[in-house]
Amino acid sequence: VPLDRIRNFSIIAHIDHGKSTLADRLIQHTGAVTAREMKEQLLDNMELERERGITIKAQTVRLNYQAKDGLTYTLNLMDTPGHVDFAYEVSRSLAACEGSLLVVDASQGVEAQTLANVYQAIDANHEIVPVLNKIDLPAAEPDRVKQQIEDVIGLDASDAVMISAKTGLNIEGVLEAIVTRLPPPKGDVNATTKALLVDSWYDAYLGVVVLVRVKDGELRKGQRIRMMSNGSVHTIEQVGVFTPKMVPVDRLSPGEMGFVTAAIKTVADTNVGDTITDDRNPATEPLPGFKPSIPVVWCGLYPVDADDFEKLRESLAKLRLNDASFHYEPETSAALGFGYRCGFLGLLHLEIIQERLSREFDLDLIATAPSVVYKIRKTNGEEMELHNPADMPDGSVVDVIEEPWIKATIMVPDDYLGPVLTLCNERRGRQIELTYVGNRAMAVYRLPLNEVVFDFYDRLKSVSRGYASFDYQQDGYEEGDLVKISILVNAEPVDALSFMAHRSAADRRGRSICEKLKELIPRQLFKIPIQAAIGSRVIARETISALSKDVTAKCYGGDITRKRKLLEKQKEGKKRMRQFGKVEIPQSAFIAALKMD
Ligand code: GDP
Ligand code: MG
């Protein structure tokens, strides 16, 4: 395909503004799939994505479109994830394209992720076409939203494309805008081969599949390719495109997107952002890469039933095959036994992995409190990264602790601004900017990430009745007055419940977790003290009073089957308990205790 007949584009939008629906309509309109094959949200192919209505993995599809100028164009669409945790996947999708459709819900307007994504697209030098979606809704205010796009983003919105992705209204207008307003790719077929490795995943039949965007030269079957980051060499078995079905082709030329298989053993060998070149005629300089994904939130995952450890190990390995941004390493906890320390891009990522483990792999897990990565300098000059509060060295040998900060952008209707600012201040936030667009406020704050991983989204949603939108990026490390809070149940430390907190919040958090545990740990035959401590200093204490009661007492002499049932029920409950010294803590207590407020 000649370069001027190719358009590579992505769709960027705030979550729920209709990106996936529009992608489906474009696929349908260009006839890439028949009506019978067409399922809602074709690109969101993971069950979980579909259910939650979010897009996790970036997806791509090739469309053929006969334009009004009579020529047929190849349009490569990259779907991008909409959630903050996956900003990194957005950036690599954008690096593979020349233009973006900026979808804005005409009944909602510009939101925090609209802005975050649009800035990334501008950074990637994209041409951007604004698309106003959901104009079928009575609440749609296209003129107001156009004005907002101009005021807030500074993009000319006078010829924004007005559509309803739901009803299919003006999908043709979107396709024409792609062809006439987005630039074609550049590239040279005679230059040495350079292709961008956009993504990779494991396919049960094909092995590792690599998603590429060819910049120069070409990729074809039988070619020996070299990964520039590590020098590994592979022979291409298949090249192809997504229609969205995988269809083999002879070659991929400059400007084209598609897939390559090359008997690569594990996804870990394929680094996203890497440059693929020809082994016999290699490029000297790689393409400008993008930042690798670094896990920012860690937590421990332990099987409720210790017999499931092996199953957990296998399941994590399988998940990792499809998600190179997920990290894990073995860990042992005195309280929870053998498990894994797992690293995630953010809280949603953590939740998704946990849910997949329970749903797809049928695992019952205990997760420890999510923790960010602290940098510690000891008095002897030694430096370390702290992924797990349990590994915190004794306070006397710690010189400096640094914690990660973020820069957050929050957009919220004026009516709810007060409580949002209060929340940010409570979480040690520092205001950088507060501006208004109509009756919407945009607050930019620096916040410690540690204050955000504990239920910040939930609180933000609740204080704004769901109207606030939020986006963040990492913004360096800063020294902080941080302490490790240990939780002792019956005088025994429960390492899985220990957590890091700023000293100013330590008493409150310590008290709150003790109060919760008091409610959640069932009374036992003896009195149980529950304490929160910093080092040896106790900062909060609760006591669970003793109880003496035989569960079967009520039915003595009575119905034997009822008695047996009760005992069985009790046994069932036991499986979900963890024994700490003499005390049993139910799994639900862990989960609830680890949720901060
Ligand atoms: P995404 O998160 O940006 O991918 O958004 P989706 O495509 O999943 O759409 C979010 C919700 O908005 C879904 O319930 C869609 O059915 C709905 N939706 C998408 N486009 C339109 C539209 O043009 N009109 C209306 N009324 N609803 C739409
Ligand atoms: Mg979607």
Automatic annotation (TrEMBL):
It is a peripheral membrane protein. The keyword DNA-binding does not apply. Residues 4-186 form the Tr-type G domain. One of its GO terms (cellular component) is plasma membrane. It catalyses: GTP + H2O = GDP + phosphate + H(+). Its EC number is 3.6.5.n1. It is found in: Cell membrane. Belongs to the TRAFAC class translation factor GTPase superfamily. Classic translation factor GTPase family. LepA subfamily. This is Elongation factor 4. It comes from Falsiroseomonas bella. The gene is lepA.
